[in-house]
Write a structure and sequence with these properties.
alpha+beta, 5 helices
């Protein structure tokens, strides 16, 4: 059974979906979508997800320890697995991710897989930047991407 929960975070409203076993989706809710909110029951897994997100936003959690089950192609899943390996507070380019997954020429395809990431933040697609170091493409918008990267940088400096 799919459960949906809306979490009011420090960066805005986030929609979390879980299957009873794992996180299946985590997206940002735009102001236009706020009036269509229908919420499921708050399960133990949803409580743990929110706890870990709170810790992330407070700067005390660097790695998520949650079961995830993103739906996508084998290529997308390979890219998302590589994204999870990007250390907190660091960034990689699309080309670097392409090399990590063993396909040097796949930078554009990595970008497309990044764009289809169904579990934002936990699969940290915000840590992927352009080859020139610029912030490019993010489902939640570049302003949000910048906020997440700044949050991680501040937390590292505080340690």
């Amino acid at each position: 059974m799919k459960n949906i929960f809306y979490y009011e975070s420090k960066i805005g409203l986030i929609k979390i979906e879980e299957s009873g076993i794992s996180v299946t989706k985590l997206d940002f809710v735009s102001n236009n979508d706020k009036e269509n909110i229908i919420e499921g029951s708050k399960t133990e897994l949803l409580i743990e997800i929110v706890k870990q997100l709170d810790e992330y936003f407070d700067g005390t959690r660097k790695v998520f320890d949650l079961p995830i089950e993103p739906e996508g192609t084998e290529f997308q899943k390979k890219v998302w697995k590589a994204l999870i390996e990007i250390p907190y507070g660091e960034t990689k380019s699309y080309g670097e991710i392409a090399k990590i997954i063993g396909n040097d020429k796949a930078a554009r395809a990595v970008g497309m897989a990044n764009n289809k990431n169904p579990i934002a933040i936990i699969i940290p697609c915000h840590r992927v930047i352009g080859a020139n170091g610029n912030l490019v493409g993010y489902a939640g918008g570049l302003e949000l991407k910048e906020k997440l990267l700044e949050l991680e940088k501040r937390s590292i400096i505080v340690e």
